[in-house]
Amino acid sequence: MLQGKVIVVGVCGGIAAYKIADVVSRLKKLQAEVHVIMTQSATEFITPLTLGTLSQNAVAVDMFWQTGDPHIHHIELAQRADLILIAPATANMVGKIANGIADDLLSTTVMAATVPLMLVPSMNVHMYENPIFQENLRKLRGHGYRIIEPASGHLACGDTGKGRLPEVEVIVQEVVDFLTRKQDLIGRRIIVTAGGTREALDPVRFISNRSTGKMGYAVAEAARNRGAEVILISAPTFLPPPAGVQVVSVTSAREMHAAVMEHFPDCDAVIKTAAVADYRPRVPAEQKIKKSDGPLVIELERNPDILYELGQRKNRQVLVGFAAETQDLTEYAREKIEKKNLDFIVANDVTREGAGFGTDTNIVSFIFPDGRVFPLPQMSKAEIADRILDEVVALPAWQRDI
Ligand code: PMT
User: Which of 111-120, 143-152, 261-270, 341-350 is predicted with the least confidence, judged by mean pLDDT?
Assistant: First the structure.
């Protein structure tokens, strides 16, 4: 399964270090080439001899380490590997990486890395919950590091809570999933829109909706993972910008319209996940609107329908819309496919539990212009994103375009 894949396993000084012998052994059984780098303190928990024997490669600990093979050193490994996996990743190592400190072989290797990194934090629950540690994790996520969440349960120190190294099977599966993921969007440029636009009422207020951007960001990340060049046109969200994606930040529907139109001619597909305001205040007040005793009437005017306009202009591009409905889902979604000239639409009933705005999961149906409807069960937004991309690459229009 992992034949031809090179994995650097970084081991830090935590009690869970002994479990990494099993991780290394399993990766070897899957035929990966494994190189282990240990911190000095990791060698207090498990010997380099054990990990060297299992990986069938010399284990590196010392910054000034020599193997006799001049080609195997940390810079070379950091560029040649398919993945650097750090497990257990201690609070100390996470803190060093997040703050650009490179004072041992492992942190120096990470600093020089041009390849994907996956971290498996494992530590005492209070260390894990420490806001400084959490800030470091957020920072690393923002830089594109993949973090495998620790498990909860009884910890070696006697405390109970989050901080256990996940089961070895879970770690190995994450590695396998990552290294065997599809790369079927290489050479393709995809626009994804996300979040809810904001329409100013006055300098301090706006009209918007409940979109958090989670669905759109998941689509952007999935497309990036499959090799696409992704332009994420994002209305305001609280999400960190995904690494390896060109993010264009916009606020209003008109700004989103301008950004989409600018990038549209050179793209292969547009996936319009954003919740775009259909109306905006006709004349936003220049100063903060003061309350009075009577009702307030605000005149709204139509925003451009971005997707409709793309449907009129499209030549080779694939267009995927979303339909957020609270009733008659299929009927309304079908109307939108036709009106907006879409290749298919992803319909979600946003009133259902586990679906729609702000959730980590969604429940959607794919609806096609010929009337076919494919309902999917509840699944994570990341999984749905991948299913959407599977449908895109299966479209005759997409395949013709190669
Ligand atoms: O962001 P999350 O919190 O994760 O929530 C996800 C979601 C519920 C926002 C998402 O799953 C979703 O349904 N997005 C589409 C929301 C929406 O605006 O639907 P609509 O039915 O109003 O619009 C239909 C399509 O036309 C959408 O693709 C929309 O981007 C597009 N549109 C709408 C209006 C407009 N003026 N221009 C557009 O391009």
Answer: 143-152
Instruction: Single out the residue of 327, 322, 338 nearest to residue 370, CA to CA.
Output: 338
Residues with beta carbon inside 6 Å of ligand 1? 211-216, 253, 272-276, 278, 303, 305-307, 321-324, 336, 348, 350, 356-358
- CA 370–ligand 1 middle distance (angstroms): 22
Number of residues written out for the chain: 402
Of 232, 322, 338, 339, the residue with max ligand 1 atoms within 8 A of its CB, to mutate for a pocket test, comes to 322
Domains of the chain: 6-180 (3.40.50.1950), 189-285+294-399 (3.40.50.10300)
Ligand 1, closest atom to CA 253?
A: 36
Residues whose CB falls within 8 Å of the CB of residue 270, separated by 6 or more in sequence, listed in order: 190, 191, 192, 193, 260, 264, 307, 310, 317, 318, 319, 320
Q: Is the pTM of this model over 0.85?
A: no
Taking the C-alpha atoms of residue 96 and residue 88, their distance in angstroms, rounded to an integer, is 14
| Per-residue three-class SS string for 34-67 | EEEEECCHHHHCCCHHHHHHHHCCCCECCCCCCC
Index of the ligand 1 atom closest to the CA of residue 321: 28
What's the gap in Å between 379 CA and the centre of ligand 1?
A: 19
Confidence category of residue 72, pLDDT binned at 50, 70, 90: low
Residue 62 has pLDDT above 80, yes or no: no
- Three-state SS at 336: helix
Note the pLDDT tens digit of each residue in 201-248.
999 999 999 999 999 999 999 999 999 999 999 999 999 888 789 999
CB 4 within 8 A of CB 28: no
The answer to whether residue 157 is catalytic is: yes
CB 106 within 8 A of CB 86: yes
The pLDDT, as a whole number, for residue 401 is 61
- Name residue, tokens 């090179």: 6
Beta bridge partner(s), residue 365: 347, 375
CA 194 / ligand 1 centre spacing (Å) = 8
pLDDT at 366 over 50: yes
